[in-house]
Amino acid sequence: MKLSKANRAIFIIVSVVCGLYALTLIFPLLYTFVNSFKTNGEFIVNVWAFPKHFNFDNYIAAFEENNILMMFFNTIFLTVCGTFLSMLSASIMAYILSKYRFIGSGLIFTLAIAFMVIPNLGTVASTYKLMSTLKLIDSLPGLLILYMGPFGSTFLLLYSYFKGISWSYAEAAKIDGAGNFTVFFRIMLPQARAGICAVGFMVAIGVWNDYFTPFMYLPSMYTLATGLQDLSTQATTTGAYTQLFAAVIVATLPLLIIFGFLQKTIMENTIAGGLKG
């Protein structure tokens, strides 16, 4: 299809803007990758030059000196379990409030929206005091409890999605004798699969990259986010930036590989979830 001059000009402008935006995303990762193979001396001499030879000592040091495998374990455990619990609690709450009317349901929904307005920093003191009283500070289960809170943007997105799902299948199942749990897990949840996958992917990325929550409530157990921040602080005093770059690449690579294999599925569910919601 031949474009008019005006449309061609718009297409070129949009392409240039998108290309520049893509470059701003790719360049930092490429810069980090290239410099991760340098020695500290090579990096200090010229931060823009390519390495004279590929030096893997930084990657070896990232595993041997910084216990990055334990950081991986903590991060993967929190991401998998935290995402599952967060999606489960938010899905149940969103389903109940979108499909059932009972005394106090409107108040609960209003409180859910109000909680989203309160800044996270505004609740840190009270949350920390509660976690400390329950002796859940510095424990993985304690952090998972925080991640499984049913309110927030996750709840709001799933609420709008469940709101758009027809209730006719559930009514037919109830006529056949299905209970509330059967209706939710066997009928409603599968229909919301696209929306749950789309929101779940965003939640997983958020948990994987979360720095503040583990920093506050899991001080002695490093995740990748807190561990990399600690390495960054050390690099400012020791000058071991190339080792930091190697650790960043190691931390980023798993997500890139997973997204590469599941890109089609993730994008299809994200688009379907967006259209349905």
From TrEMBL:
Single GO BP term: transmembrane transport
Domain ABC transmembrane type-1: 72-262
Compartments where found: Cell membrane
UniProt key word Coiled coil: no
Membrane topology, from the record: Multi-pass membrane protein
Keyword hit for Metal-binding: no
Coiled coil: none
InterPro entries: MetI-like (IPR000515), MetI-like_sf (IPR035906)
TM regions (residue ranges): 9-31, 68-90, 102-122, 142-162, 183-208, 240-262
PROSITE patterns xrefs: ABC_TM1
Key words of the record: Cell membrane, Membrane, Transmembrane, Transmembrane helix, Transport
Gene Ontology cellular-component terms listed: plasma membrane
Family per similarity comment: Belongs to the binding-protein-dependent transport system permease family.
Protein name, entry field: Carbohydrate ABC transporter permease
The species this protein was found in: Candidatus Borkfalkia avicola
